[in-house]
Q: What sequence folds into this?
């Protein structure tokens, strides 16, 4: 009998985390041991490391087509996107091993196909240093590190992958997007570690918040699942879990508990726009590393079991959500609007344009936050002298500042074939001229704003990452436009490129192509070379119906 397969964390009594080569070695050893797990190549990282996923299934189906043709629900787990936040990497590997080597696990894999990306940021992962994410309760940041240290928040090239879902500047983001589109999972789980407000949590969780009214079916199913599971995990294993957020005012919990902006540059909100269930898991960075690994393991296992037990209802909720989006984008309801801008503009003392993304507690929405007495909070003591639970406004609702009526299709006057394909979106070309009502935007103003925490400096050998409290200089900027719109009867020549809105992913398409979207292609400077005040924006809207059979797909 051979010795059981251990992760680096397990083998070192939680003194160290796995190097990327160890992740691959563990995955390959598991595949050699069990016919219920297969390795999938995802491409290479920027520095040429192999990126891999594991597919777990007990029905013999290991491809997206075979799995979706059967009864299984697909759950995708991604870990280590911020490679200083390593518990998901360790726990997801351990979970794969435990599922394929236990009777209960094998039974579960009849109902659930699991796709696991244990280390989506290999280059950041291998920049391991105890100086990364160093603990500082005074500034409410960092974590209890394993003594051997952890990797970096950014990729080897310095990209923050969890701000990259729209612009896809990191090759690792593009590799993950391809895998996500191929598998089209009903549920996606993204693993992190959070610092911030002083609380009694072991883990916080959240889900997508963009266009909440339109996405209510999946949002409702996800919220219900997360709250039920939090109670179950607390009862059975004693871990304290709650909704993700921070106190709006650190020393004054009564001001409320607020989640993070609903921008789809964050993977969670991006996948929400695709109508899928999305789960953000954040272990709490001030508890010990071993406990963080244990709590995220409990959640990953719990979510997979929940998905198996409720697979019919969850698959139905996702299918219903797709129908709701399709109907909303089909043009039947003139009241239909898509929220594309949630930021409120502010001017700095020096006049620079900035945005705030307020979250509101609507309809008396409250949340219970386990924390400590106020004196401990004021003194920044963790753990505090006495535990205290605060019932406070739950600021997790987002109200669009700007909404648009979706067109029938967007007319693309710039070449976006590769960009749209990278998001899994279709483009078509007119075979013959088309008469139609076309809406054109005229650019009224162009201004820049900077993006915090989108790109960071990569530490040199032996160095540690700069904490965000050190206010590293901005390295990435955004273009902010104002436009005026008018429609006119227009003849579109043969060869014109169009992207229909009533395609799968149509809601994302609207967000990507609208000139004033807070997270679209224009915002990420893709069209800068085409933008002049007083000139037309290079994407127009077709407002009249499209006749059948006038296109070829690209
Ligand atoms: Zn993170």
A:
């Amino acid at each position: 009998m051979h010795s059981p397969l251990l992760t680096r964390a397990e083998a070192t009594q939680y003194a160290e985390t796995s190097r990327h080569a160890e992740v691959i070695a563990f995955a390959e050893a598991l595949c050699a041991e069990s016919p219920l797990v297969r390795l999938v190549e995802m491409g290479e990282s920027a520095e040429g490391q192999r990126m891999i996923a594991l597919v777990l299934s007990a029905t013999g189906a290991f491809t997206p087509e075979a799995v979706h043709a059967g009864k299984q629900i697909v759950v995708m787990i991604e870990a280590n996107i911020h490679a200083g936040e390593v518990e998901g990497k360790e726990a997801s590997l351990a979970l794969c091993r435990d599922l394929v080597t236990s009777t209960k696990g094998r039974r579960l894999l009849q109902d659930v196909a699991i796709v696991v990306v244990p280390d989506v940021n290999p280059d950041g992962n291998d920049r391991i240093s105890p100086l990364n994410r160093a603990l500082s309760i005074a500034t409410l940041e960092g974590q209890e590190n394993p003594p051997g240290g952890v990797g970096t928040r950014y990729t080897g090239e310095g990209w923050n992958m969890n701000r990259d879902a729209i612009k896809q500047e990191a090759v690792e983001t593009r590799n993950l997007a391809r895998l996500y589109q191929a598998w089209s999972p009903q549920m996606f789980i993204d693993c992190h570690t959070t610092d911030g407000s002083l609380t009694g949590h072991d883990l916080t969780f959240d889900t997508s918040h963009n266009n909440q009214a339109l996405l209510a079916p999946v949002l409702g199913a996800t919220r219900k699942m997360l709250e039920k599971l939090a109670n179950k995990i607390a009862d059975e294993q004693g871990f304290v879990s709650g909704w993700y957020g921070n106190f709006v005012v650190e020393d004054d919990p009564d001001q409320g508990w607020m989640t993070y902006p609903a921008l789809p540059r964050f993977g969670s909100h991006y996948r929400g726009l695709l109508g899928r269930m999305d789960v953000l898991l954040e272990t709490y960075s001030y508890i010990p590393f071993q406990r963080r690994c244990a709590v995220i393991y409990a959640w990953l296992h719990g979510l997979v079991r929940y998905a198996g037990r409720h697979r019919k209802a969850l698959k139905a909720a996702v299918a219903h959500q797709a129908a709701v989006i399709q109907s909303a984008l089909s043009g039947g309801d003139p009241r239909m609007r898509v929220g594309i801008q949630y930021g409120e503009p502010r001017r700095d003392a020096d006049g620079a344009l900035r945005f705030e993304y307020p979250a509101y507690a609507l309809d008396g929405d409250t949340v219970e936050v386990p924390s400590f007495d106020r004196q401990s909070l004021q003194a920044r003591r963790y753990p505090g002298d006495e535990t205290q639970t605060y019932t406070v406004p739950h600021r997790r609702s987002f109200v669009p500042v700007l909404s648009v009526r979706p067109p029938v299709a967007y007319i693309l006057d710039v070449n976006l074939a590769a960009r749209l394909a990278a998001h899994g979106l279709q483009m078509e070309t007119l075979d013959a001229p088309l008469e139609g009502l076309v809406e054109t935007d005229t650019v009224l103003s162009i201004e820049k704003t900077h993006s915090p925490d989108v790109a960071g400096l990569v530490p040199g050998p032996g160095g540690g990452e700069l904490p965000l409290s050190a206010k590293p200089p901005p390295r990435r900027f955004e273009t902010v436009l104002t436009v005026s719109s008018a429609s006119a009867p227009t003849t579109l020549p043969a060869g014109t490129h169009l992207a229909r809105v009533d395609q799968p992913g149509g809601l994302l398409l609207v967000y990507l192509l609208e000139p004033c979207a807070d997270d679209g292609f224009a915002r990420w400077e893709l069209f800068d070379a085409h933008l002049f005040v007083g000139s037309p924006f290079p994407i127009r809207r077709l407002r009249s119906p499209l006749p059948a059979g006038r296109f070829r797909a690209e």
User: Anything to note?
Assistant: The longest strand covers residues 434-450. The pocket of zinc ion is lined by residues 82, 85, 162, 192 (CB under 6 Å). The two ends are 55 Å apart (CA to CA). The mean pLDDT is 96.
